[in-house]
Amino acid sequence: METIYYMYTKQRKEFGRHPNFSDEAPGILFEILPEREVKLDLIERNPCVANVQVVPEMSEHEVNTEKVVFKNTGQFHKEGGWPKDIDPTEVEHTLRYRKKVEKDEDYLHAIAKLGGQTEELVKQNNAVDIYEEYFEGHPDLESSEKPYANTLLVFRDPSPIKRAITHFSCLGHTAHGGIAAPNLSMRTYNTQ
């Protein structure tokens, strides 16, 4: 690639005179006196403090949180989640246990709370007609073309730990092509 530049030369005598600095007594070169008419329109503020900053104020905050340990567990439910001492195949045992639980004060409060929440959700569902035809009279949106997809770009993660792209930002087409910024994040939490 060819470098474009222009070089010029001057002799020292063409630079101009050598500056000669000397000490002088202080003096007033120009003075602007206040105008009385303008001063009457102004209100004096005492004390007056004004802070002026061109850049926006920003702050930083760090928090150290406790490490959270997760554990995956499972339970097989063939017939409800009965306690160990109750045999779910025995009708008498299950009826006796149900009556005991239904008499418990916490059970009554839980049922009352769930009943209120359920009633609210049912009212919301009744407000929306889920069986209404929203696109009645419109032609079918199905296309005769088969759907297809092309791979235009493949992102490779340089890290040995595999990370997923969780957010992707791009700046359209510029003179040098597009600019892309993928945000990579760990797939699992706290594995290190």
UniProtKB/TrEMBL annotation:
GO molecular function: dynein heavy chain binding; dynein light chain binding
Location within or outside the cell: Cytoplasm, Cytoskeleton, Cilium axoneme
Keywords, comma-separated and alphabetical: Cell projection, Cilium, Cytoplasm, Cytoskeleton, Dynein, Flagellum, Microtubule, Motor protein, Repeat, WD repeat
Keyword Repeat tagged: yes
One cellular component term from this protein's GO annotations in UniProt: microtubule
BP term (GO), one: outer dynein arm assembly
Major place of residence: cytoplasm
Keyword Cytoplasm assigned: yes
InterPro entries: Dynein_IC
PANTHER family hit by this protein: DYNEIN AXONEMAL INTERMEDIATE CHAIN 2, DYNEIN INTERMEDIATE CHAIN
Family of the protein in this entry: Belongs to the dynein intermediate chain family.
Name of the protein in question: Dynein, 70 kDa intermediate chain, flagellar outer arm
